Write the structure tokens for this entry.
Amino acid sequence: MTTSNSDPELRFQHTMWASMLAPEHMQKVRDEVTERFVPAGAFVCRKGDPVDHWMGVIDGFLKMSSISPEGKTVTFSCMLAGGWFGEGSLLKTEPRRYDVVALRDTRVAFMPRTTFNYLLDHSIPFNRFLLHQLNARLGLFISLVEYDRMLDPDTRVARCLAAMFHPYLNPASSMQLQISQEEIGYISSVSRQRANQALQLLEKKQLLRVDYGGITILNLDGLRSFPQETER
């Protein structure tokens, strides 16, 4: 993981909360947030690490996961450009409870704990944003329990793809998503081959289109309610 020196303004171009801050608060953020480059396959942070920063994706793709005592990898979430994470651990002042790995070359913004706490103390819009984000993340994690325990692989792929389109968790996502079938397998906890089968089915149902190097979402509500939506 190396330090990068790109234009500070570009660090926040996809970040929802940045536009909500007062000018003097945003200037403090610009001055104190740093950036690091994380190559594909490298750890951004590991389970058990001390939590000293709030982190955001400038560009790239991260996976948040943990390994169970039985050796099973459980994927909690993925983060694209504009997504920020780690607020729960900062608020509770506890060690990191998950691993975050770069699935492709990624630039990550690091906001120090002191800056994060300053915004909590001085910015009502920032507090409102965090409430909405924490609520969205809670809903996502509850749904992941259902995905893992109750849903078949096709439905799991559909719902995990749909979860990537959330204004608070992944605000920069467009309907054209540059993602490989291997990456879809990672976030859905299925093999690449099984992810390919699921994508073929979802394409047949006209919920998405498989493109070269990615997918285009055609019916986001249909993905969220699959398979019920296709049975009507």
